[in-house]
Amino acid sequence: MKVIPIPYHTGFLDLRLEEKNLKAVITAKIHSYKPGRPEAQIVREALEAPIGTPGLCELARGKNKVVLVTSDHTRSVPSKITLPALLAEIRAGNPAADITILIATGLHRPTTVEEQRRMFGDAIVNNEKIVVNDAFKPEDFVYICKLPSGADFRVHKLARQCDLLLTEGFIEPHFFAGFSGGRKSILPGICSQETVNENHSFKAIAHPYAVAGVMKGNPIHEDMLVAARKINTAFTLNVALDADKKIIAAFAGDIENAHEAGCGFLRELSLCPAGIAGDIVVTSNGGYPLDQNLYQTPKAVSTAEACAAPGAVIIMCASCCDGMGGEYFEKLITAGTAEEIEAKLSGIPPKETIPEQWCAQIYARILKKHKIILVSTFLDPELVRRANMIPASSPEEALSAAYEIKGENAQLVVIPDGAAVLAVRAEIREEQG
Question: Average pLDDT in the 51-63 region?
Fold first, then answer.
């Protein structure tokens, strides 16, 4: 009997299976990477050797209004380490700088003060100016331009009014933007709902290069990068994290060049071998905070899709402790069969994109080819069924159901943290080189 721990909420679930059924366990090398230096030192070294820009201290000289964009409660950015370092660099260049920390929520719910304290620490919450982006307040946004796709770019007015704009975040494979981090802090992070929706339209999501690991020719990435450039994003700090959410590398400097360096590092350590396909694929979103709602789970399910044989069953382990993740997503994913959902969404023009429809679109695409079993102890099983998935309360229950579908001799591919693994389809690997 083989026992494989699967990240779930703030702990793990044990997946127990016979050795004869196990075809492969796929993990990102990033989880075993040892940097050999403390986290704070890694960040400090990155700030001291920025890629493609002067140092942040120098950039801050003479800049009075500074906006520092950071991630929200759905991300694992180690801001207790990174934010103090960034704030110190800014104030070394201009001690009197008026600094605002702007939390990039995209279309997510607002980050609570309690969550801010967990993310940033009491000292920053008590002493710094913090604004939470709200994409649904039109008065907070200003129009900038049309993006390459034709989308209207509206961004939070604080980003336009400041003298120095910088971002922080972390990089991991992203299921339609190629990689997270860098330019993504701006779009979708601090954009209006209209801009986010259009960037995530059915047409954009359906593009063959709008997948994990691909940025060249990816229309979603291209709009994001232009948006970040148009508002003069001057500096970024992005980190790479291991399975324990510890910093193992950091990349600072130009919004494009520093981000590309980080993506290259991640690609080396997260790309899984080609040609692995299971009859049953088991994965997770890497536990909390990324598994707190169903809306976030297509990240790992897309990874599982790339490692699934035709007609395979996908088992997704996600607590969904915060529910479905959005009222629009819930309505869409429960609006009918996968075919009906896709047909409805495909007829929506880019400028009429419904918030959160992209995750329903990706789920519909996958559900047309694969049955999905959702292991969750928080979501109502009936709601899971309405979302076209099979509910299970444990890996054992899910595996039993999967064996009933695929047979007792089914071969399993296990991807404990599907959000950290980069799985690229063979034809795209060949096209992208």
Answer: 98
Antiparallel, parallel or unpaired: β 308-317 and 278-284: parallel
**Where in the sequence of the chain do the CATH 3.90.226.30 domains occur?**
2-28+272-432
How many Å apart are CA 209 and CA 428, to the nearest integer?
8
Sequence-distant (≥ 6) Cβ neighbours of residue 408 within 8 angstroms = none
Evaluate if residue 433 carries a pLDDT over 60. no
Q: Does domain 2-28+272-432 have CATH number 3.90.226.30?
A: yes
| Strand 371-375, strand 390-392: pairing | parallel
What per-residue confidence (pLDDT) applies to 316? 98
DSSP H or E segment with residue 429: helix 426-432
Nearest to 238 by CA among 34, 75, 64: 75
* Percent of the chain whose pLDDT exceeds 70: 98
Q: Which two three-digit tokens encode residue 216? A: 């060249």
**CA–CA separation, 16 vs 380, rounded Å?**
24
Shortest CA distance to 302 belongs to which of 406, 422, 428, 180? 422
CA of 426: how far to CAs of 65, 115, 166, 181, 363, in Å?
Answer: 47, 40, 36, 25, 21
Average pLDDT, the chain: 96
What is the tens place of the pLDDT at every residue in 14-39?
Answer: 999 999 999 999 999 998 999 999 99
CATH value of 39-269 in 3.90.960.10, 3.40.50.11440, 3.90.1150.10, 3.40.50.10090:
3.40.50.11440
| Rounded Cα–Cα distance for residues 385 and 398 (Å) | 14
Active site residues: 108, 174
